[in-house]
## 1
Amino acid sequence: MANESVDIQAPIVDGLSKAEQWLTNNSDLLVQYGVNIISAILILFIGNIVVKAVANSVSKLLHKKKMDKAVVEFIHGIVRYTLFVIVLIAALSRIGVQTASVVAVIGAAGLAIGLALQGSLSNFAAGVLIVGFRPFKSGDYVEIGGVAGSVDSIQIFQTILTTPDNKMVVVPNASVIGSPITNYSRHATRRIDHVIGVSYGADLKKTQEVIRRTLEADERILKEPGTTIGVVALADSSVNFVVRPWVRTEQYWDVYFDSLQAIKEALDAEGIEIPFPQMDVHLNKVES
């Protein structure tokens, strides 16, 4: 039994001796690697803080210059991601990874990813075009890609809209550039389009005067350009007037609803009928 115990312990002792000798011989190398790893971690940690600080400083500077919020967020994203890549390369080079090799790998990976994600790259390119040509800005009410809403932000790959019922809609930038863009907020004034139908028996001149008088009583309706009121169609059951006043863009919907109600009440007060669709049925008696 004693001999067996000696045989078992001998390899263990020999292994520990070799490990201790290896640690002794390579202690300087281990210390160097340890320092490099800790340095790389510190570079990542501190670099990330610096990147955020620089990106936020750029955003504040652009805000002070009264640059559009959507453009500021787009530039903020580009600055932050670009600087973080530089910090990552610096950290890898600290632990012995050749920077040139990293750049080559990133370039090759970028090419492969670019071929696989052509849609994302087109969204990025479209984002650059949006920022460059500025078809809309933050806060504008627009219709893009079949969606209408207020522009919240322009990001690297998508544009964020908020709909009137407070839903967030994410529209890819390529869809924004690739479809018609309707900007309802670009100009200072907008035209309201009403179609008012009255009965065929109504006095058309009186109807026109009642509508004009009603609109002139609203101070929010602009004097220039003038309001257009005229017969636009002889429909099946009504004579249709087109009513087109001009208002300031921010007052559009308030005036739209108020003017429509005011016209209805004024026509009722003057005894001018607004008919509903109806059909005359003629019965012919056939003698048997």
## 2
Amino acid sequence: MSEHSVPPAPGSDVLVRVEHLKKYFPIRKGAVISRLVGNVKAVDDVSFEIRRGETLGVVGESGCGKSTTGRAVLQLHKPTAGRVFLEDTELTALSPPEIRRLRPRMQMIFQDSYDSLNPRHSVRKIIAEPLVVQGVMPADKIRDRVVELLELVGLQASHMVRFPHEFSGGQRQRINIARALALNPDFVVCDEPISALDVSIQAQVVNLFEDLQKQLGLTYMFIAHDLSMVQHISHRVAVMYLGNLVELTRRDKLFHDPLHPYTQSLMSAVPIPEPRLERKRKRIPLQGEVPSPANPPSGCVFHTRCPLAQDICEEEPPPYREVLPDHWVACHLADGRGGSKIAVEEIR
């Protein structure tokens, strides 16, 4: 994608700012002499901002770069290019020891609630580990802090002596959340934290995230497949496709009037709980497979599956521009008046 301006977050109190972020994974061949033969462009020129206290939902198909973006923002993956700021501090310019000193302010909750917990450690040791590693609390105060965190996420003090295998998936994810909150972070990346849970438990965990945000003033980057959950929890939503950000706007605008053809296709697949409306709605299925990020298409990365693709889409990357107030789209055909949406409906 070509160079573009960073879309402003609503409000002026920006906590996280990402500028032209790229993360490429090298492809090497040769058993004896390894040589570079290409790159997997997992994240390719992504820019966005997250203001303090908001939730930015990030959606897209598997392999589109959502999780890699979250890890690169937290410097768990060193970016190939671009800059990431936490307030006025440029994370991408810091050394590993300097990043470690900032870890209390930014945490991550992983998708697999079991693999992310050490099965040989008790809940007390798991939750206390960040406090011990960072040395932010006297040893005689740690137990009380663990109890406080367990109660904060809806568990009991007696759970601290048990081990991860003794808990359900939802309870294990609550333990993960408690550990992430141990150091009082400002920013939390939630990497599909509910996708491995039963549907009946997902709503409980999402409600917990919302309650904690109100209580502690947390800022979330919420990565998910489930669009209905993203719609419920997010203030703004970013849509990714093949390592690129194709649309970003406020939640209500995105779900009621998506402008990018890819976003329109995603939204058409979200079930409507009213049978009469569901029967009348038009689906916008996508044809073909997602291209390989090791060899992305020229021009617009979506043009090989787009029902509206024109010659310019194959030749030139679309500019990422603000077509409506606080509504950013990377599409040659989006004009801010629903033009691309009308065209999609006409070809059905």
## 3
Amino acid sequence: MKKFVYIILAAVLAVACSSKGDYKITVTFPDASYDGDTLFLTSYDSGDTLSQAVVANACAAIDGEVEGSFMARLLVHGERMGFVVEKGKIAILWQDGLATGTHLNQALNDLDKRLEELGDNDSLMVEAFNRAYHENVNNAIGPWAFNYYLMYNEFSSAQIDSLLKELPAGYRDLKRVQKAIKFAGQHELTAPGKPYSDFSNSKGEKLSDHISKDKINIVDFWASWCGPCRREIPNLQQIVAKYGDKVNVVGVAVWDKPDDTHKAMGELNITWPVIEGGANWTEPTDLYGVSGIPHILVIAGDTIVDRGLQGEELTHLVEKLVANKQ
């Protein structure tokens, strides 16, 4: 059974598209605008920088040695892409965002294409990630797919532990899996029926500053770059239009730059208060065990009534709660 480990023996500061080693990554950029930038090879799981190269003549190359395979990301010029590091020659056309030349990267490209075809069908996505990690349990795609399988489900800590017992021991050591276990615990502490947990941003603005004990509170975790988040805004606006001062919507902008948040608020005509914390602000999502957005909390008084609802399910719950208060 292969271990999901990597050994980087050399970092190449490349000035041309040439490389040598166990694996060879050659990146070709669309033009010279990337020249002089540093291309970083990072671990998908931990985010650690493993190697780097300087882009020159619209090219960069990184090589090294690897045991087995692992999922990685390349970062440059404020952009990123994911792929598999494995033995062989890996060719990347940056504008296409695809890695070719090795077996697992081709398999990952095929999987990405299938996932894209599924669109926003969460149940089919869950099935696809479940099948993908079982089919690739002993290579780099397995842990990557397993992580997304966890993200698309609200498993308890006990359920995740049960899944891990059927997988190689290395899965439990993955930082993203450890984070999922921690999030599951936080999710249980902030489950429906529990008191809501307060948080604040660097300006001292608290969630409790915006919670009304006399109204149905809808707390929306969102970001400007999140397509599903943006698509949920009109539903929230319809709820506000229908129920007026009986409901209270509060936005929580997470993992987002303030300028982008403000721009999106104007584009989407968001009129309710939004608590901002910046791109690296994780306190709210860590506290509530939120691994994907949008994520909506419904709070009445000090109690979480439900969470994770969107669309018609959210509308029906609000309708029921408003009726019960009358």
